[in-house]
């Protein structure tokens, strides 16, 4: 509405009235907001640890720390409810007589400027102790050894402070124990805690009905991916074995790990609880994985230089599970082409046992040594999670030049065997773990060999987390060869030291016996050792200091060479990228060498 005078100008008095009205209305609406307080500061004294944490989690006034829109009335109402909430928060820990002691049991609520402060001093009172514990088992599982004397293993015993968390954990443990022993219908028909708050005592009574014992029935699948008899070898249980969810989970994991399947569903055929059932059939639903897998990669290592590789693997060329593969690697200091053919065989365990046929052509050079080799071999091996071992035979033909002037060639038919043990929860990024390995091989002239030799090598690596953020890493290896003459043994079978995985600070295969011109020609024996101290810095980064020693040699005078250095580590899901700066302290003067490696801890 407009107010005007005769000459058409506005009435100032009318405008002033409207403005004042609007301002007054705005202030009226704003008054509750002006009365709102800042989020409260809540302090609880007299308790610590999990008691304090549970009080804060259940105290509604403490839950408003992120809420700025609290009126004075709301704050007082929440404060009034606090003593009851505190007492209730302590009952799961066996304190049924807890109370707030300051300000006649009400606590203190004060306002300083725009902020509220609440203080509650808590007295827990005497704890409720377990006076009696009774656990009874009924049903067919009553006589089962695993379900006997359950009370002795319960996490709450007579005289212990009552604790709801430990009580529920004990119940869960009993049910899991029954389930893992085939009593999958087990249930508590009675679970009661009788608390006598005035006497500060509690009586616990549990009654478990085991239900019938369940065993595995037949395991079947309608898949046409693998032959049924081959698939059955992956099933670790037999019909009649005690039913176990753990066995089913392991079967699913094992089938996935074969690489044959893109999807694995393990379905136990359980009847409704009201129907009687003792045998549980299992049905497998499987989807095939894409048959061909291709890989393309590249990298750099100070021992190999720039390198690239391309690979192909057929996950399953037939229903017997055969797997061919081929890989080519090109590098500055050597190239290779590898072909393989793998057949699963149920010798000890089909999940890990294979017969493999491999062929290799490679060329490599270092210093004044050049080799060109062709190999063909067959190996029976067990590649389990903790133990890997196997035996086989390999044919080797190698042409080589050593010291820039010795041209020769050797052909050998070599039986061989190996054993490796790895004990670690995580082999890629290890906190605690150990790896121990050993191998032997040899040949006997004139039986399919141009020279005779026998060689063995043993080694190990250990990782120990000695404190938070600190790891100690140690490794050692020793090798020895008996032979007719070092000159007749191809360089690929001689021992050398130096390089990324040997004595850092020295070049790749730069340590060992030399000829008259000072060129390294390789040795009969090998000794290597290393100790490293690593500390995590932040995120994925860590730093290390290390000391290495080792050499290849022909006589008892090993003359072990030494290297020291520092390095940085980048820890990734597939292992560590390690960049080291090392000095060969056994050499005169001061020279630094960079070493770059990538790989798992063990």
Automatic annotation (TrEMBL):
Its main location: membrane. Keywords: Cell outer membrane, Membrane, Signal, Transmembrane, Transmembrane helix. It is found in: Cell outer membrane. The keyword Membrane applies. Residues 294-588 form the Bacterial surface antigen (D15) domain. It holds the Pfam family Omp85. InterPro entries: Bac_surfAg_D15 (IPR000184), BamA/TamA_POTRA (IPR010827), D15-like (IPR039910), TamA_POTRA_Dom_1 (IPR035243). Interacts with TamB to form the translocation and assembly module (TAM). This is Translocation and assembly module subunit TamA. It comes from Candidatus Electronema aureum. The lineage of its organism: Bacteria, Pseudomonadati, Thermodesulfobacteriota, Desulfobulbia, Desulfobulbales.
